Structures are given as C-alpha cells and as structure tokens.
C-alpha cells in the first residue's frame, strides 16, 4: 500500500471512505444503516473515535475522523469487521430481504476471491485515508461528504439526509455524536 494512503500521524484528522464489495447497494434498508450508526457511536464511546463528519450512502461511507484513544487504523478495522459480521447476519435473518440469496452470493463470491476471508467479504479492503493537513482540504472534504446525498438525488438540502452529519452543522442533533469542525 502506498505511503500516501496510510494513517501516519494519529494526531491528525483523516478523510476516509469504505465501500461494499462490487459497490453493492446494501444500505437501502434502515436496519442495515442503523448497524453502521450503532457501530460509530460504540467506537466513539468506547474506543476514542472522534467523528467530525460522516455520510452513509447506499454502498459506501465517507467520514472525517480522528482518535484520542486507540490507533485509528485499529478502530476502523474493528468497526468494518463488526459491521460486516452484523449486517451479514441481519441479511440472513431478515425474512423481508428479497435480495438475500443474491446479496449472500455476491459477498461469498468476493470472499472466495480473497485469501484473507473465511467465507464472506462485505467491505472492500482499502480505505484510502487522506490526511487533512490544510483548512482548504478539510473544508473541501466536509462539503463533499455533506453534499453527497444531494448529488445522488436523495434530498434537496444536505441537512435533510438522516444518515449524515450535515444536520449537526445546522445546530440540530443527528444520529451520531459528532465533534463539529469550527
């Protein structure tokens, strides 16, 4: 992995994204989205994760994060592992999931093609963290994250998207405990 895409300085903020394998649109059901939200809040409360911005789209997550506890790469690794396992179980156990067989086939196929997995692969392995070392870059990534649902046509205004920190930047409280960038 290139040095450019590594978390080098634990004191810095990072923009990172991670996507489902093959960009599968998993996050169209609230129960799957809520697993990611719960995991973010758990990591904030118990692992020292600091979330400054986030947005959960249908197949991926964007975040600006830092840490005052465990190393950031370990938090992200554990969060991805936990959410993958929990979402796969939720898909398997959901009688309403009309795409169950196809979703599990996609994740199993990806898992077979990756020797790091035992059965399924849910998330793509890379995160491509980008150190936010200037106010310009920080502002650019913050705008990108919050405008992602607008660009996708989900909402007209960023703060109207429930699974994002845009609402927090309007003075209201969102689903995840966010530290505002001032």
UniProtKB/TrEMBL annotation:
One of its GO terms (biological process) is DNA transposition. GO terms for molecular function: sequence-specific DNA binding; transposase activity. Gene3D superfamilies: Transposase IS200-like. Transmembrane segments: none annotated. PANTHER family: REP-ASSOCIATED TYROSINE TRANSPOSASE. NCBIfam families: REP_Tyr_transpos. This is Transposase.
